[in-house]
Amino acid sequence: MAGMLRTLLKSSAARHCGGRPVRAFPALRRFVSTADISSAKYSASCFPSTVGLRDLDTFPRRHLGPRPEDVSEMLKVVEAPDIETFVSNALPPKVLVKRALNIDPPQGLSESAMLRKLKEIASKNKVLRSYIGKGYYGTHMPAVIQRNIMENPAWYTSYTPYQAEVSQGRLEALLTFQTVIVDLTGLPVANASLLDEGTAAAEAMIMSFHHTRGKKRTFIVDKNTHEQTIAVIKSRANTLGLNLVVADLLSPEGISTLKASAKDLCGALVSYPGDNGEIPRITALQQIADTVHDSKGLFAVDADLLSLTLMHPPSTFGADIALGSAQRFGVPMGFGGPHAAFFAVREELKRKMPGRLVGISTDRLGKPALRLALQTREQHIRREKATSNICTAQALLANVAAAYAVYHGPEGLRDIARRVHGLAALLARAVEKNSSHKLLGDGIYFDTLRIQLSGESADQLMNRAVNTYGINLFKVNDSTVQLSLDETVTEKDLADLAELFTGNREIPDGVTDFPEFPPEWQRKDSILTNSVFHEHHSETAMLRFLYSLQQKDIALTTSMISLGSCTMKLNGTVEMLPITWPEFADLHPFVPRDQAQGYLQLIDELEHDLQQITGFAKTTLMPNSGAQGEYTGLSVIRQYHHHRGEPQRNVVLIPVSAHGTNPASAAMAGFKVVPVKCLENGSLDMADMEKQAKKNKDNLAAFMITYPTTYGLFEPGIRDAIDLTHKYGGQVYMDGANMNAQVGLTSPADLGADVCHLNLHKTFCIPHGGGGPGVGPICVAEHLKGFLPKHPLAETSNHDTTNAIDPVSSGPFGSASVLPISYAYIKLMGGENIPFSSVTAILNANYMLYRLKDAYKIQFIGSDDFKYCGHEFILDLRPFKKYHIEAIDVAKRLQDYGFHAPTMAFPIPDTLMVEPTESENLDELNRFVDSLLSIREEIRAVEEGKSEGLVLKNSPHPIEDLLQDDTVWSKRGYTREQAAYPLPYLKNFKTWPTVSRVDDVYGDTHLLCTCPPVSAYAE
Ligand SMILES: Cc1ncc(COP(=O)(O)O)c(C=O)c1O
Fold it and tell me: Within a domain: residue 879?
């Protein structure tokens, strides 16, 4: 296999011509056929009337909203005779390629065949007992949580809670997560999750660096920290030019190293417990904290959440930052992710905190209401000056972890922790009493034992462990192994372990004397005192609690969510089913390769299909969000320039219209951002592009552009901009988050780009989960593949990694357990049908645009350059400003119509960006358009000075508002009926906002980010 791959690599290696790579791919185009995107194909292939002997349960007709007859109607509205003509007018001629995709099977698998195929793949994964630890542990996801959150579209299909009034349920769950973290770490402010433990640790380093205003560049990490965490920190340190030192901070030499670095020290990080399982002494940790503080640096502690239910919290020994993974709070290992990382800080640091933060504010009626707080520090506003590039995080998994804490409560969690420690201690006793192996360390551990073997090598013991008992351990060196116990360990498992190490299944004193956690290490305070952690311990209570939260929110279960730039398409149930199968859910990321053959096959095939779609040569699935993909792609470009002896190339050109994560990621990857102007009509200002490229020719590293652009336009000058970049020695990074408009019609490689990321959680059906998980793979051209990231504990690719960049995530394949979703989507659609996802997404958007264009100004569309938009368009509400009507009024009023607002204020202030996706049917598109047209009449009432228009400013109207007495309503100038049921369909079904308009300013000036006592709500 390796030999075959090497031959392949050689034959397709990039050829360099005059210093610039010549890609093999475009030459191939001559030999491949053209995709059929005709109306006839849409009917016959996606909506077949007969399928002969084939399965009836075909998928494209379930994924695509409009039926062929609807399409005919919609084409009339957009003034096009057929699909093909429409697409030819929507995409510029130099852009429309229609390269046929070599994706198997061309017609797609039926739903039942897909499940059979995935079962077959899953069965190639061997689920053994994994005690490998290193940040990943077995855990029981309570069935009530699995069924009602993890597998429940009301939770997993929602977006980041931008529209607070219809998101109070998941905001409350995220606030609960923050409360868990605050209680267990002892620090006063925690965010609503980060991507994983490694990146959270890297964020701690970056926060420390910013804390010194960039003046101090040395960060020291204790060597007893997980390898993958150190490697991710190293990757970020390299790109930012920071000096990373790994030292034994718990030794006197470590303290000397800290002192010696004082002048340049921005911070230090210690793991608690350490990678080898040892728990440092509080006095030693306090000494490190004091030393770091003496040099004005920040002290970060990478902690284990479960052990914190028993151990002193990091706040007791001077931590400024506490971080770690919440995985073992009910989230399966999933071959490495997705899992929620946590991040808590001292009060003074809250404004520098990366990621999303939920806070409590009040609504228009003075009622407590939750919302996202301190958003002005995020990349959407601060761009390259943002505290971090985090946009998508791990909301769904944070909600699972919060629910796990709610369900078990403080005593339940402590019982789990005591049991885990007790099991480890029993095993330790058995090893000490009944074997000649030696337990390493000073005997103070939580769940992890390091054992030096006698009479048997690590390999011999590990072979016996796998073959006789089905057990995986971690090999430290030839004579030492390590293992971590967890919640799932049974009596039999313990006996197996005892027998493995001692030859005897007996557990000394096992029943009579369950060992206790050492008292001097035990925290004495009460944890999780809020009532939410005490009220939902029966399954009935928990079920109702979760249901009550879900009822408050708009998700795809209630109506379309037309958030521009977010692609809220169908997350097909058949795609979702496999992710909780044990064969995918219960694999540790560092198991031997032969146990992960199913995953490796799936990853291989998915990478192949993504390469077909993007036209590129190689993929990494490691980045776990779009923004992480951006960081990875730019780091690869950076490495490429360094490798070619051009390290001075440090400028990235980014159009002013770009998504906020673009400049934030470029800054994080160590680049200087130079903006490129856009013209009045929304397209790139090519003259400015040329000027900037020329001006920076010696330092030009890359040009970074989203396609279709963030204005929803198929930029006609894209190929010229790409050629220009190459002419001046730069690489082209295409932000492929908008790939939903490109599949099968054009591609980054066809257009000449060098690297792109994809948001699998947009284009490829991974649900948004209320703000994560995400998967942001990057695909690269041949000449860049050697620079894709490696991993210290696992093989990530089958090519030479000598020049590879350090890892960008803790898991070798990022959020591996959700990859079956994208895999299934592509295979269900098939190579011939999947282009219709893009075609229909573009048609749906233009249908809405054409129905709305006489009522609203549509930004950029209507000129000779742009007859049509791409897959999204911008409603310009600025003309109504003179009547004091703003985008926020329309956004909030849409909630009264049962809809989530489109994207507000991005990419242009006071506009709404609408993206319907291909999965919405004509009825739903019409309902949304009719709502906007009805709102237009309400705006007209304002223009004409009629009182009915006041309904906009008072929106949304929760039931509590409607029930106010007549003295209130007589002054309103509009009726309750108009407020609540402005269109007839609402009387049949409506999702109600549960609070009235939330006061953003109050929330930020009175920041409160943990669950308040229930009395506060009652007041
Ligand atoms: C164009 C574009 N680029 C980048 C991103 C960032 O992706 P993520 O939120 O996964 O970090 C987004 C997110 O929606 C996007 O729309």
Answer: no
Mean predicted lDDT score pLDDT of the chain? 94
Q: Domain limits at 294?
A: 162-394
The residue among 426, 424, 450 whose CA lies nearest residue 438 is 450
- For ligand 1, mutation pick of 659, 775, 906 (most atoms within 8 Å of CB): 659
Residue 602 lies in a domain: no
Q: Before 773, cis peptide (omega within 30)? A: yes
Please identify, by atom number, the ligand 1 atom nearest to the C-alpha of residue 566. 14
Q: How many domains does the chain have?
A: 2
Q: What digits encode the pLDDT tens for the residues 245-276?
A: 999 999 999 999 999 999 999 999 999 999 99
Between CA 244 and CA 319 the distance in angstroms is 19
Confirm whether 951 is domain-assigned.
no
In this structure, the residues whose C-beta lies within 6 A of any atom of ligand 1 are 391-392, 565-566, 625-627, 659, 661, 706, 710, 735, 737-738, 759, 774, 776
Q: Ligand 1 centre from 389 Cα, in Å?
A: 10
865 pLDDT band, cuts 50/70/90, is: confident
User: How deeply is 904 buried, as exposed, middle or buried, from its count of CB atoms within 10 A (0-12, 13-18, 19+)?
Assistant: buried
Ligand 1 centroid to residue 392 C-alpha, Å? 7
**The last residue of a domain, from among 817, 838, 855:** 817
* CA dist., res. 39 & res. 83, Å (int): 5
How far, in Å, from the CA of 880 to the mean position of ligand 1? 29
Nearest to 707 by CA among 760, 670, 749, 675: 749
The pairing of beta strand 448-452 with beta strand 480-484 = antiparallel
Mutate to test the pocket of ligand 1, among 632, 759, 761, 822 (most ligand atoms within 8 A of CB): 759
**Ligand 1 centre from 391 Cα, in Å?**
7
Locate the ligand 1 atom nearest the alpha carbon of residue 627 and give its number: 11
- What does the pLDDT average to over 665-682? 95
**Residue 879 CB neighbour total at 10 angstroms:** 12
Last residue of a domain, one of 377, 394, 411: 394
Which residue in this structure is represented by tokens 């077909």?
A: 612
Mean of pLDDT values over 8-27: 37
Q: How many helices (H) and strands (E) does the chain have?
A: 38, 28
pLDDT in tens, 67-85: 999 999 999 999 999 999 9
> How far, rounded to the nearest angstrom, does the alpha carbon of residue 389 sit from its chain's CA centroid?
12
β-sheet bridge partners, residue 710:
none
Closest residue to atom 5 of ligand 1, CA basis:
626
Distance of CA 533 to the CA centre of its chain: 27
Tell me, in angstroms, the distance from the centre of ligand 1 to residue 58's CA.
Answer: 31
Residue of the CA atom closest to atom 8 of ligand 1: 626
Ligand 1 atom nearest 776 alpha carbon = 10
Distance (angstroms) between ligand 1 centre and the Cα of 377 equals 17
CATH number (domain holding residue 805): 3.40.640.10
1002 lies in a domain?
no
Q: Is the pLDDT of residue 15 over 50?
A: no
Q: Which amino acid is at 787?
A: F
Burial class (CB within 10 angstroms; exposed 0-12, middle 13-18, buried 19+) of 153: middle
Please state, in angstroms and rounded to a whole number, the distance separating the CA atoms of residues 953 and 891.
11
Q: What's the pLDDT tens digit per position in 415-440?
A: 999 999 999 999 999 999 999 999 99
Place of tokens 């920190």: 233
pLDDT of amino acid 11:
33
pLDDT category at 610 given cuts 50, 70, 90 is: very high
Atom of ligand 1 nearest to the CA of 762: 14
